[in-house]
## 1
Amino acid sequence: MAQLTLTAVYMKVREGYVAFVEELPGTNTQGDTLEEARANLSEAVTMVLDANRELSEQALEGARHSGSSDPACCVKRTDLIRHLERHGM
């Protein structure tokens, strides 16, 4: 399996910590402690990657049925947003 290197950014704020991954839009979270923010960010990364994988699979399946050679044409940004909202992101 290929290894993916991501940049996690943690910032101390008055309420605790906020965290996000630079290379993965939509992957952001917070925590009262740095440890909690790290755990939450790990979960957020997993959720966003799973959502992206699912949408890619749907796009490929849709392309097979529509005859399109471009799978990207089958996934809309609004579909991704709805999917992420459904999964609490």
## 2
Amino acid sequence: MPNRRASAVWEGGLKGGKGTFKGESDAISGNYSFSSRFEEGSGSNPEELLAAAHAACVSMALAAQLDREVHAQAWPLDQADVAIAALRAGAVDGAAVLVPSHQVRALPGHA
């Protein structure tokens, strides 16, 4: 598999600053901030990006396994949740946790 790259730039202080990120393919990009990461502010955050990447990988792996074992058309619907512990004195109290959940739904006509 080829290596993939992304970049992120943060401007300003922690609480008042803002950041942008971009993937090398230009398929993903966005803004993030203290508020979008540690509160309910608008914009993306690193945990959301990790969750999306994890869900995409699990979905493809599940599709490959279904293709090998079931030989039926299926549509994997995956969701990954990432949580962080509360911020205390400028430090995260706990590490990010990935919690995958898997649902599979047969395509119409392939039940």
## 3
Amino acid sequence: MTTTTNERDLAVARDVGTRIHLALWERRITKAHMAEQIGVSGSTFSKKLRGTVPLTVDELMTIARVLDVDAGDLLMGRARRDSNPKPSDP
């Protein structure tokens, strides 16, 4: 099965939404509060977390500020060290 650009974009958007949702939960911040912070309704914010409505750069930056995280961590996930690193190629 071939994955289209739209399918990949949606998958990435969902991953970002999942990271935001987890950070909200960890910090006990409600989705309603975050929706207010970025100036959208609760239902729109939920759609943004699901990836069906895109986040703007400004919204992502505000979310990162409120969550006190790096926006890059929300986009790409936290860098994790591999427990079994492979030797680098010569």
## 4
Amino acid sequence: MTGLPISVGPPPSIALFIPAHNEALNVGEVVAKSFEFFSSRGIVDTTVIVVNDGSIDNTGEVLEDLAQTYPLKVVTHPVNSGYGRALDQASPPPSARVMSGSHIATLIVSSTRQI
């Protein structure tokens, strides 16, 4: 039996969008685990954007601290606009969405889910 050919090219570039609303207790672990995942797989071309969607807890302060440790971009909405709007604000324009070798992902941060 022959295996399928495996491409051994360079690791992909990845853009990760993380909408967060009142997730001060969870967003740090999610961001840290995301960067650990990329690092463990040799993925260095990453863009991680967290949208602080009108949080009234200290999510903003947590994100400021995280941005000192990780190459993180933070988009802040003054009021909660909802999950879909948060993704719209963070995602690239349609012309940039289909790029050869690039991958775009979203990650849900939620205090209602086990990480």
